[in-house]
Model the fold of this input.
Amino acid sequence: MSNAIELSNISFAYNNTKPILADLNLTLEQGKVYSILGPNGAGKTTLINIMLGRLRPKSGRVSVLGHQPESDFCRRRVGAMMQLGGLPLQTKVKEFLALFASYHQAPIPLEKLISLCQLAPFLEQTFDTLSGGQKQRLFMAIALAGNPDIVFLDEPSVGMDVESRQQLWQAVRTLKQQNKTVLLTTHYLHEAEALADELLVLKEGKCTKLNDIPELATTYRRSQIKFTSDQSAAALVNALPMIDLNVKGDQFTILTDEPNHILQQLLEKFSIRNLYVAPMSLEEAYLSLMNARSA
Done:
């Protein structure tokens, strides 16, 4: 299997600040699906823009399909679905498809593009009448119009309902069957589980491949309970033994598989304020997993 993208010793910083990327090495194989994650500010968008040729690294080498990422060859063979919004409001979906297909020498046939992105029901609608999920499908179609070999999808399922998300997943699987390389960013672990062959993790300027997605999934299914309290950490641990507790001043965070049971105990035994309960994000699950390994 050939390599679609190769990055060697990549470093990048904005205006002589601390490097966002530092001696980063990464190889993406043709025909695989990758999902990238990392805490806010880790450099995900910067890394993608370097691979797209929109930013030049301060040092290192970037090869995309054997060419420089800013080359005309790569502009023809790489598609990107980024977080857009400034399309003409009164233009119809079918007009967008025809327009963007006209920019390419060998575009994907429109009927195939319409089928792949499930656009048929709203071809006659103008951009301003589309729902959030419908706009995402249109953005994906624009990224695929040139029949690229590499596709970047930036949070493609944002704003989609369950049915639309399943249709998008099928489109990504179809791209893989066609030997396309797909790099997607997502905050949904079940999306990464369903689609990605490998997870790419950005942290402290480095990029590593995380192959143990099932272990991450187990961590991800835990819930966070955050609150403030004047109680001591010792009192909480004595009342709730074996809890995974983090304390910063009067800020408490509990990670648990049994949020209802823990909440009941907290409300019965302690005076707490500013209660917040939510599933862990994908990045938080990764950080929790890495912290547990290093403990």
Q: What stands out?
A: Residues 3-210 form a domain with the Rossmann fold fold (CATH 3.40.50.300). The chain has a mean pLDDT of 86.
